Amino acid sequence: MNPESVQNLKIWQEGIEVVKDVYRLSKEWPREELYGLVNQARRAAVSIPANIAEGRGRGSPAEQARYGSIALGSAYELQTLLHLALELEFSSKQYLDPLQLKLYKLIKQIASFVAVQEKRI
């Protein structure tokens, strides 16, 4: 694997784990939400590692910071959607809390990544 590969980035790896968790969790949400909250949560989750990959693929620190910021926005969006799932009782706190904690840690990591890239510009 190329040392510059996105697959070597911890934030990308963690983003992939969040996507898998969101897909597993949202499978249990009401069927009528398939094109609503389910779709939106899945798209926000996928957007996190996808934007990190796109920024990495473009190569420059400025592009990595830009796409990292987009990934960060998607992570915050997902945080809100998971909160809604709890409020709407689609998932219990018992199942959402570990994912919210993982997402919180990922948000901090992405924010640090963006800050490092911005310093390199």
Question: Top keywords for this entry?
Answer:
121 residues, mainly alpha, de novo design (two linked rop proteins), 4 helices, elongated
Describe this structure in words.
- This protein has 121 residues and is mainly α.
- The protein has a single domain, classed as 23S rRNA-intervening sequence (de novo design (two linked rop proteins), Up-down Bundle).
- Helix content is 80%, strand content 0%.
- It has four helices and no strands.
- The radius of gyration is 15 Å and the shape is elongated.
- The two termini are 26 Å apart.
Shape: elongated
User: Any idea how many domains?
Assistant: 1
Rg measurement, Å: 15 Å
Roughly how much helix do the residues carry, as a percent range? over 70%
Q: Main sheet, how many strands, which sense, barrel? A: none
Assembly type of the chains comes to single chain
Q: How many DSSP E strands?
A: 0
Uncertain segments = none
Which structural class is indicated by helix and strand composition?
mainly alpha
CATH level 1 class label: Mainly Alpha
Number of helices: 4
> In the CATH scheme, what's the topology name?
de novo design (two linked rop proteins)
Report mean pLDDT, rounded to a whole number: 95
For CATH, the homologous superfamily is named as 23S rRNA-intervening sequence
